[in-house]
């Protein structure tokens, strides 16, 4: 079980610029808005506001219309010339609603308030304008990622099947709907679940993941619903379950098809009632949790065999997303490899820049039964072996079903071992070739060979090489 939560105190503090030529009005609005948690600055006319915005880009503006030098209308006209102007709430003294709406529409303001200002109405408008601003910014970022990079909240791909998936994720993420993710093992179902959470209004709340296949039947209910002290042998203290930990956030039930039928009925009740009872407790607790379930099984077949409840399936299968296996999206392999290499460089402290053409061709010839998880494992080994520069063919393991003796020998880092070579001589050749690769860095060579530094020194001493280099 894993959980993550962003600290709301680290959230971005929105900036509001108050523009009014009347000092008392300007100070009063500034104090009021600052009290609601915004960062506030002021300007006494439109020209002054433009100067402030050059060095202090605000997300929102509250502006009067009648001001000297540059009035509110002139300010909004100038702002419309900018690429990403702040949203404006205009304070007006118009005589009619129709005149106000027409003027606001022509100027491109977010909305208006009539004098005297109602503080609660202003607070509501600021919240709505900030929400609209952030949605617009998020959409712009997503479109840029999708169009240029082929990335969406941790997901990677530019093939038609992935672009279609990205579109569905953007549609379902902002809702409260339960999502069922299907796909073969290793296709990235948890990454997809986290993307849904990241793009939802629950992003600043917990994301909790539970692997239903990793727990025995006797423990899964305790993990899901929690337990009271003494409720069973070994329950030494009260413990909150996944539903409580994920309150207001997202709960991923991975490998949901492996959940015992007896637990499925209790899960269904929680989903229907929105209430959970810890094991051994007398009362229930209200929970607000968005459910994302994932499975590599065909649940319809499990239902037919009595291994999965049909009513639970319908409850979970509100919106289904299917991840294609890697073999059906091989055009994404270079982009996936680039992303994984970047992650693995950070993990292992190496500087691999890419993959040479022959190695990439070899990767594309594989069938990848383990999908992206298998690709990551292959690249992790290759990144460690390469250390820097490009991943070469010699850094890749021989694909299953390939004759090792038939592997190409024209790579300068390849080791050719002919029939009749003794195990000791083969081992010696491997150790010396690895030392050449690491520029005689024995610590690094030992890591690559999977042996201790002491063992490497002993081998070199056996070969008479260690003392010769010392």
What does this molecule look like?
This protein has a 6-stranded mixed β-sheet with strand order 1-10-13-16-9-17. Strands 3-2-4-5-6 form a 5-stranded parallel β-sheet, sandwiched between helices. Strands 7-8 form a two-stranded antiparallel ribbon. The chain contains 19 helices and 19 strands. Helix 2 runs parallel beside helix 3, helix 13 crosses helix 15 and helix 17 (442-449) crosses helix 18 (453-463). By secondary structure, the protein is of the alpha/beta class. The protein has helices at 23-35, 46-55, 72-79, 97-107, 119-149, 160-172, 189-198, 217-225, 242-245, 261-273, 299-304, 310-316, 333-348, 357-365, 371-386, 423-437, 442-449, 453-463, 466-469, and strands at residues 2-4, 15-19, 39-43, 60-64, 87-92, 111-114, 151-152, 155-156, 179-182, 207-211, 226-227, 239-240, 250-254, 275-276, 285-286, 290-295, 319-322, 351-355, 388-391. Strand 5 (87-92), helix 4 and strand 6 (111-114) form a beta-alpha-beta unit. The chain folds into 3 domains: 2-137, Response regulator (Rossmann fold), CATH 3.40.50; 150-324, Rossmann fold (3-Layer(aba) Sandwich); 330-469, Helicase, Ruva Protein, domain 3.
Spatial order of the strands forming the largest sheet: 1-10-13-16-9-17
Residue share in β-strands: 15-25%
CATH architecture term of the largest domain:
3-Layer(aba) Sandwich
Count of strand segments: 19
- The fold-level CATH name of the largest domain is Rossmann fold
Counting DSSP H or I runs of 4 or more residues, the number of helices is 19
Structural class: alpha/beta
Q: So what's the oligomer here? A: single chain
CATH class of the largest domain: Alpha Beta
> Strand count, sense and closure of the main sheet?
6 strands, mixed
Give the overall shape, derived from the CA principal axes.
Answer: extended
Give the distance, in angstroms, between the N- and C-terminal Cα atoms: 50 Å
Number of domains: 3
On the 0 to 100 scale, the average pLDDT is 84
């Amino acid at each position: 079980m894993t959980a993550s939560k962003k600290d709301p105190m680290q959230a971005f503090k929105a900036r509001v610029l108050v523009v009014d030529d009347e000092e008392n009005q300007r100070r009063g609005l500034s104090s009021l808005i600052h009290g609601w948690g915004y960062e506030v600055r002021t300007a006494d006319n439109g020209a002054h506001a433009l100067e402030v915005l050059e060095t202090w880009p605000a997300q929102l503006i509250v502006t009067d219309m009648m001001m000297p030098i540059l009035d509110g209308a002139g300010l909004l006209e100038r702002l419309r010339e900018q690429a990403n102007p702040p949203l404006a709430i205009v304070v007006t003294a118009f005589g009619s609603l129709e005149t106000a709406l027409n003027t606001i529409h022509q100027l491109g303001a977010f909305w208006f308030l009539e004098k005297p200002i109602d503080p609660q109405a202003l607070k509501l408008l600021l919240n709505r304008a900030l929400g609209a601003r952030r949605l617009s910014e998020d959409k712009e970022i997503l479109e840029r990622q999708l169009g240029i990079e082929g990335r969406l909240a941790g997901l990677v791909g530019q093939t038609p099947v992935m672009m279609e998936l990205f579109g569905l994720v953007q549609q379902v993420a902002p809702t409260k709907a339960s999502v069922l993710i299907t796909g073969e093992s290793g296709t990235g179902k948890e990454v997809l679940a986290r993307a849904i959470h990241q793009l939802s209004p629950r992003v600043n709340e917990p994301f909790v993941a539970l692997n239903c296949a990793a727990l025995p039947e006797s423990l899964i209910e305790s993990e899901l619903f929690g337990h009271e002290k003494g409720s069973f042998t070994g329950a030494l203290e009260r413990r909150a379950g996944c539903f409580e930990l994920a309150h207001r956030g997202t709960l991923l039930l991975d490998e949901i098809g492996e959940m015992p039928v007896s637990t499925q009925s209790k899960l269904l009740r929680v989903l229907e009632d929105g209430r959970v009872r810890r094991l051994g407790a007398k009362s229930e607790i209200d929970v607000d949790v968005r459910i994302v379930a994932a499975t590599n099984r065909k649940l319809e077949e499990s239902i037919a065999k009595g291994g999965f409840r049909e009513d639970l399936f319908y409850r979970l299968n509100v919106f289904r997303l299917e991840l294609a296996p890697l073999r059906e999206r091989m055009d994404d392999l270079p982009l996936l490899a680039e992303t994984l290499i970047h992650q693995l460089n950070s993990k292992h402290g190496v500087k691999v820049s890419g993959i040479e053409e022959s190695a990439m061709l070899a990767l594309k010839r594989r069938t990848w039964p383990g999908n992206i998880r298998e690709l990551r494992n292959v690249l992790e080994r290759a990144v460690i072996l390469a250390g820097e520069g490009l991943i070469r063919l010699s850094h890749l393991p021989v694909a299953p079903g390939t004759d090792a003796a038939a592997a190409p020998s024209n790579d300068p880092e390849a080791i050719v071992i002919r029939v009749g070579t003794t195990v000791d001589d083969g081992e010696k050749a491997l150790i010396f070739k690895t030392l050449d690769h690491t520029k005689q860095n024995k610590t690094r060579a030992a890591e690559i060979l999977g042996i201790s530094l002491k063992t490497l020194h002993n081998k070199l001493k056996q070969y008479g090489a260690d003392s010769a280099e010392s």
